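Annotators were shown the component list below and the corresponding predicted structure, then asked to write short factual statements about the assembly.
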Amino acid sequence: MATKYIFITGGVTSSLGKGIICASLGRLLVARGLRVTIQKLDPYINVDPGTMNPYEHGEVYVTDDGAETDLDLGHYERFLGIRTSQQNNVTTGRVYYDVITKERHGEYLGKTVQVIPHITDEIKSHVLNLGESENFDVVIVEVGGTVGDIESLPYIEAMRQLRYEVGRKNTLSIHLTLVPYLAAAGELKTKPTQHSVKTLSESGMSPDLLVCRSEYQLDESIRKKIALFCNVEYEDVVASLDAESIYEVPLLMQAEGLDSRVIDKLNLPAKNADLKKWKGFVDKIKNPSHEISIALVGKYVEHHDAYKSIAEALIHGGAMNDTRVNIKWIQSDFITADNVEQRLGQVSSILVAPGFGGRGIGGKLAAVKFARENGIPFFGICLGMQCAVIEFARNCAGLENANSTEFDDKCKYPVIDFMPDQRKIENKGGTMRLGKYDCKLTGGTKAIAAYGQEMIDERHRHRFEVNNEWREKLFDNGLMIAGVNPERDLVEIIEIEDHPWFVGVQFHPELKSTVNEPHPLFVSFVEAALAKSQGKSVTSEESKEAVS
Ligand code: GLN
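Structure shown to annotators:
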């Protein structure tokens, strides 16, 4: 079967949740036995979001192959249970970079290089290459931005051309729009949707299906009106009402018949949807038996999107423990040794978040110390793990003012440092350890109990490492090395033995947690937090049973 391409554009306003609609449609098609992937086209000039501030862009999502990508790819992986790669995220910056590189190499044979056809050809080849890479049944292409934006135009033009090149019957155009409720008029308004569809149509891309975000149910007359003015059939107006949880959206979309319409229109060979497991998951997150609070200590906490995957992984880990996890967002800048108890005393566990730069480090170290000394379950991720090592070095191994050279490059005890082989790479500009690396777990640790196997792989995004020169000193004072990268002998996981649950990981486990496969460390962490809130403690054996 030829690969089918579904183009999803958005109109009226940004933040309509296009990524969630794409991921939900993808989930429904996967549940019907189809092989699906999703690609995000981002109209900004940055080559990737790797250099963008988290306030600008939210989390940078890292794939197995080490690509720094848009956080929507996280939704795709979590909803579909697939693995994405660099191919799943294309930006205008990358497209232009590649076209200009080809031009410099003389590949355009002296022609004038233009938006049409050269930029649009480059966009089309990204879309088609992904479809062909694994012979997918369906590629959902999410076009970032809002219809009418100048920067989206080359993408819409490329989609328009593709519809003819791969055949109208192999493509579908879905437009996501807003049907606002005007309180003064007491009614839902269709005009913004009409205008949005008109703008899209002016670019030659008329929609086959409309997904209408709305606070209220669309009645028959509204649907008829939208269908009439927007040139679609009545059944092709799909309502998407606000949901309590993003994980409900696939079920709501199924009830609205989105997947059935797509399957009919693309003539896809699909079986009945199997969503039993998904429904069980949604039920668990909506009606859990327990409730706990976890402090997430970080420096971008005003902007929750900066920690998107962590928040989702906690929901997944919570569902496995029949527990609602309430995140208490704690700004690390404001924590001090004096107020740490007042700020963190009420929570049943503490997670110190990833990050870059020295701001808020004092607060993070105070949070680690508080968790360590008071037997509060602690999870340190990337920078959070590095803080745990620094705190341990200073307060348990007698290494006064130990630090990371990221914050103090002249410190006497650089327990976190650039590795010598990285210094050489620095000159070439590629200093980050990015993407998937192996890790061998140590017997008898919380980590191996959680994973239930010795060899694992996880994704990384950092420059600094635990300094092997100080490893023995830390170990001798009681810091367990619970996981090591075998190729480069780098510390990947640390633990403290006589503590209910104290685990620091150099990698980002949150990136691999999905609805169908919640991450074992998050499951184990929530379990320990729940036990703490109930005044119990869990043994490694118990936590192994909980996962299996
Ligand atoms: N800033 C630290 C490093 O580069 C940690 C990075 C992170 O938390 N992702 O090593």
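Statements collected:
1. Residues 354-356, 382-383, 406, 461-464 surround glutamine (CB under 6 Å).
2. Residues 543-548 have pLDDT under 50 and may be disordered.
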